[in-house]
Amino acid sequence: MESNFKIECFRHKILGNKQCILEVTNDKIIITNITDSPNKRNELDINYNLFVDFKVKKKQLQAIGLTTNKHHWYYADHDNLINLKQILGARVVFKGVNTLYNPLQQIGQGTFSNVYLLQSKINSLEYYACKCLDKAQVNEQIGRQGLFEEIQAMVALKHPNIAELLEVYEGDVSYYMVMQYYDLEFTDILKELNIQDIHIIFKQLVTAVNLMHEKGYMHRDLKPENIMFSDSIYQLKLIDFGLTTKSSGRSKCGTPGYVAPEILNLDTKINEYNEKCDIFSLGVIFYKMLTQNDLFQGANHEEILENNARCNTNFELLNGNQKIPKQAIHLLKMMLQIDPTLRIDSKDILQHQYFTIEEQTHNNTINSAGQLSRKHSSVIKILSPIQKKNGMFTSPFSIHDDECIENEALMQPIPTVIMKGGSVQDMVKAKTQGINRKLSKDATKKYQTTDFDDIVSEIKQSNYRPPKPSQLSEMYNK
């Protein structure tokens, strides 16, 4: 087995330290005790049954703890331990999330999870997003294996346009998925895009989905809310793989207005669907980019769902707009075929004339984007943990831009739904009166994050979005 990484370390023993060599291969951690004669060798499989934690002192990693049947501490140089932590990444389960990170604020809430902004305790200028899931809820909905299938999908899907999962932590009552933090949301810049921007963005999105399909995965929840950017429109990041699957599609899931009709009209006992469901969702997103309107509309989620299932499309806004290329309209109609067997696939989309025509050089990389991200972000002052302990704060984000507050008040999240029952007609019959469908308590409950309780309990939760990463470091220094 070829070693990818090797460091010297030691274990504390009563009769003196034991010198060791720790090596990492593709699928194992190999520890050789070189003090012993002959040398003793221990091999640990790299998987989600291997638990890893760290000792930290004065912002320096001192030791890595490895647990299978027994727990042992291995002491080594800080830089080597940082590299080891990055190499293991999301392929093992880490313990003690509060040892390495401070939670600053809740920045998002999904149907089955909360998302927090984290600050590294090792480097105070590094910020991350953390998806927190209640273990009891996970076990009830998908089980531990189901969660780690999502994790394995994210690990397998390495691509510049797919958000990278960095680490997975397991606490007493919660799971934590630590990812890169992106603040520039697709929904924020949608109305600012010109036809060249749309071309740049959509090609990245299709490229990311094409990689998923080549590896046998379906996303099943493609929508504007699951598209982010890192500083510019040239750095698209597809996020949220909670409904991603590698198996055949036999469950009804997705977001009203973006779900493929074959999912909504599915008879789960006799039918199944494939990756073409993502192509339909891409088509709905493409329509919104071109027209600034929702393809399927309604007074409530049930009406949207009904129009979505019947595939009631209206292309008048497209045909009457001379700014929209004819190639884009042709591609869109191929993506929105109600019959998935007639629908274009992701590989052929990239070969479509909409993308193969000569591409002109564009200079609008959202310096537009820099302005947009600041327009839609809160201006904040970050308080140190010492200031928090001394009660010198009301919120970690204490200064807000008036325009941002006004915009934030208008934002309403669209829930992802797991649909049960027969055809869409059966679901529509049971629709409730009123403008909006309310989620159940189980769907909207705030999950426990006890590993963060000592800090989170001090923070007054706010609805304001934190700033982009480049602003964080700048403001922290000030």
From TrEMBL:
Highest taxon, organism lineage: Eukaryota
The record's annotation in SMART domains points to:
S_TKc
Task: State where composition is biased (Polar residues).
Answer: 459-478
Report the residue ranges that make up the Protein kinase domain in this protein. 101-355
Q: Tell me which PROSITE patterns the record gives.
A: PROTEIN_KINASE_ATP, PROTEIN_KINASE_DOM, PROTEIN_KINASE_ST
InterPro entries xref list? Prot_kinase_dom (IPR000719), Protein_kinase_ATP_BS (IPR017441), Ser/Thr_kinase_AS (IPR008271)
| Gene Ontology CC: one annotated term | cytoplasm
- For whether the record's keyword set contains Kinase, the answer is yes
Q: Which GO terms describe its molecular function?
A: ATP binding; protein serine/threonine kinase activity
Q: Which keywords accompany this UniProt record?
A: ATP-binding, Kinase, Nucleotide-binding, Serine/threonine-protein kinase, Transferase
Give the family per the record.
Answer: Belongs to the protein kinase superfamily.
Annotated ATP binding sites: 131
Q: Does the keyword Lipoprotein belong to this entry? A: no
Q: What is this protein called?
A: Protein kinase domain-containing protein
Locate the region Disordered: 458-478
Kindly list the biological process annotations in GO that this record carries: mitotic DNA damage checkpoint signaling
